[in-house]
Every structure is written in C-alpha cells, then in structure tokens.
Design goal:
The protein is an alpha+beta fold. It folds into 2 domains: 206 residues, Nucleoside Triphosphate Pyrophosphohydrolase (Alpha-Beta Complex); 149 residues, Alpha-Beta Complex (Nucleoside Triphosphate Pyrophosphohydrolase), CATH 3.90.79.10. The chain contains 7 helices and 17 strands. The protein has a 5-stranded mixed β-sheet with strand order 3-1-5-4-9. Strands 2-8-7-6 form a 4-stranded antiparallel β-sheet. The protein has a 4-stranded mixed β-sheet with strand order 14-10-16-15. Strand 15 and strand 16 form a beta hairpin. The longest helix has 17 residues. The protein is globular and about 70 Å long. The chain starts with 18 loop residues before the first strand and ends with a helix.
Length: 403
C-alpha cells in the first residue's frame, strides 16, 4: 500500500478569485419633526420582497453624495430638502460567484430636514390620507404657476393591490405628467415600527443598531439582500483592456471613483497652541495633507482610518464621528502616469491619537514620507492642502455645535 506521502493530494481546487467591484450609495434619513423616519417602497420595482428603503441611491461619477440624496428625494418622493448633513457611514460586501464579482458598497447616510410637514404623508400621531376636499385644494395650490414642482406631493390612500401595508400608508403620485415624481408608498415610521418591517441588512444595522458590537466596524457580508439598490449590470462586465491610442488620436481618460477616509486630529492643549497631525506626500518639499487614504475593497471606512493612520504616523486611532463628506472631480495624471477622469469622495472623521508619542512613518515605499504635528497657525506657511483647511473648519463647527 502506498504511503500517505505518495498518495495524490485530495485537496479541493481553490475557488476562482472574484473581481472586486466598489460602489458608493447615499441615503437620506428624512425627518419632518413628527419623530419618525421616512421610508418608502416603489411599486413594481426591482425588489420582489417588497423591502422598505430610504430615499437616495448609487452616487454617479462626479456627483456629490449630498446631491444624490437631494435628487433621489425629489425624484422618488417629490419632496425638497431644507438641509442635508452627514450622519454616518457603513459598508457591506456581497460575493456573486456566478457573476465572478465581489461587490463592496460604501453606504453614506445624511440627516435631512424638510421645509415643513408634507401634507398627507402619515407619521406618528397623524393620518396619511387627505380627504377629497383637501386633495382638491392641494391640487389647486400645486397648479400655481410660481410654485416649484415637487415641494409638496399630492397623496391618496394606498390601493389594496399593494398587499398588506402598515395602517395609514399613503401613495404619493405625480400631480401632472410634467413633474418628475415617481409613484411610491411612503410613511414616517416611528422607531418601534421599524423593527417589524422588511428592511435590508444595512438598514437594520444603521437604523436599528442590529449586529453592532465588538466587530461593528467590520463590513456586513454574505447576504444577497444587502444588494440594495440592485447591482448595475454594467458593473458585472470586466473592464476593457487598455489600448494604446493610435498616433494622432486623443488619449481617453479612465473613469475612476475613489472613496477615501481621513481624520482631523487636533491637539488643542499643546503648549505652543493648537496643533494638527498632518502627513507629507512622498517626494514633495512641502505638501501636507490629512492622515488617511483610500478605502480598500471590503473595508469599513473607520477600519481604513485605523490602518492608514498607523501606516502614515505609527499612532493608534481612536475613532470619532463622521463630520463632513466632500467630493472632487477632475481629469489628471495618476502617479503611475495613467490619464484618469477622477472622482474623489472623501469622508472626514473626528477622533484622537496619543499626543505624547512622536509620529513616525511605518509604511515602506508608500505615499507618505513624513508625519508631524503642525501648529494650526502655521498651516498655510507649511503648505497644507485646501482639504486640510476645509476639514479643520468642519471640525471646529462640529466641536462648537457639540459643545
């Protein structure tokens, strides 16, 4: 009998490697002062389970996530936002072996307020449907020439064909064929009502806190119901092989959307006055920026910050809240020389690191060759990038508001 060493291996063949696909989605947590959150369902949509969701959607190339929330709210509900401010961010990963891809979705949540309470959309302690007289009066108001479309949609009771729905749900319909408002079922839901609704996994995590704990910064994974909204079929196609342009033909830039996370780390009690932790680009004489960087496939934004701050400064990051989200779109050369149509989505966090340890770069051959505490009064003289100044202003606004 042959020895065990001479027997052929019985190990299973390794699974084929899935192509990583990243996308960014932005949603509005809409409040009208009634104590509830606006959830909606789109009849005849792509979700056979009839899950409820928030207004918003996938961020398009070059689009600010805040603008996606504003546009999604108007397109899906006919409502206009009075204010839109960052609330939180999460991430989830769904593997689709049949399509050969692993889909990483970065989820951005914004708090949204409305100019007033929209007539007819139900909420805690108030009905949804309008009477016939109220609908007529409301329609006449909407027909005013000087009124912007979508400021207050007309509502009717939900039809029985939509199946079992919570009491007092209304259907908001476009008041005219020229108004870009989709029909939807919506209601302001109190927290107690949310637990009994069919929600996607990321909403259960971010609105109800389900699944939070020691690993709350680990992305949710494995659940196909996390694919909300459904995946764009174009993302399932492999990217085309780059081709050398023919002589005389213009070079075509490659579209790149890159989400990244950065931290505003300020030592307010430094003896010489407030100072800020910054990192300097490799090869630059004096270009200082915020510590942080790109969010890798499968990473939660805060985990990306833990990794980046340790690599760039050798310090342990204590996570703080999301205080700002910025967007920048331009065409330029990447460090490796490729021409890119580049869309940067930057998540700006507060937080802290030990102030009694000298920062030192840990990563070898990375994008940072120095990290240091820079006096806030010297940011301009030292060559801090505009993003650092803007993030410091957002941090001060957060600090003053929180205080």
């Amino acid at each position: 009998m042959p020895s065990a060493e001479s027997q052929p291996s019985q190990s299973r063949p390794s699974a084929p490697k899935l192509r990583p696909v990243q996308r960014t989605a932005a949603y509005g947590v809409v409040s009208d002062g009634s104590g509830g959150v606006l959830l909606l369902r789109v009849p005849g949509g792509n979700d056979p389970q009839g899950r409820w969701s928030l207004p918003g959607g996938v961020v398009r190339h070059g689009e600010h996530p805040r603008d996606r929330v504003r546009a999604g709210l108007l397109e899906q509900t006919g409502l206009r936002a009075a204010s839109i401010t960052p609330r939180d961010a999460g991430a989830d990963v769904v593997e689709l072996p049949e399509q050969g891809v692993s889909v990483h979705t970065l989820r951005l949540l914004f708090d949204v307020t409305l100019p007033g309470r929209p007539a007819g959309i139900g909420g805690p302690g108030r009905p949804a449907a309008l009477s016939e007289e109220e609908v007529l009066a409301h329609q006449l108001e909407l027909d005013r020439i000087d009124r912007l479309p979508g400021e207050d949609p007309v509502v009717t009771p939900a039809p029985e064909s939509l199946g079992e729905l919570p009491a007092a749900v209304a259907v908001v319909v476009p008041p005219g064929p020229d108004r870009p408002v989709a029909q939807f079922v919506g209601r302001f839901m109190a927290e107690g009502e949310l637990a009994g609704l069919p929600l996607s996994g990321f909403l259960r995590s971010m609105l109800l806190g389900e699944g939070e704990g020691e690993d709350e910064e680990q992305p949710l994974s494995g659940d196909v119901t996390l694919l909300d909204p459904p995946i764009d079929p174009a993302l399932l196609l492999p990217p085309p092989e780059p081709a050398e342009p023919a002589v005389g033909d213009p070079e075509v830039p490659v579209f790149v959307q890159r989400p990244a996370a950065y931290a505003v780390l300020v030592d307010e009690d430094a003896p010489g006055g407030p100072r800020m932790l910054l990192s300097k680009f490799t090869g630059s004489a004096s270009t200082w920026t915020l510590p942080g960087g790109g969010i890798d496939h499968g990473e939660h934004p805060r985990l990306a910050l833990h990794r980046e701050i340790y690599e760039e400064a050798g310090l342990t990051y204590q996570a703080g809240p999301l205080i700002d989200i910025s967007s920048r779109h331009f065409v330029g050369r990447a460090p490796h020389g490729r021409l890119e149509d580049f869309h940067a989505v930057r998540l700006i966090y507060a937080g802290s690191v030990p102030v009694d340890q000298e920062p030192q770069v840990i990563e070898v051959d990375g994008s940072t060759d120095e990290a240091a505490w820079i006096p806030v009064a010297d940011l301009t003289r030292m060559g801090a990038v505009p993003t650092a100044h803007e993030a410091l202003a957002a941090w001060r606004a957060y600090r003053d508001g929180a205080g």
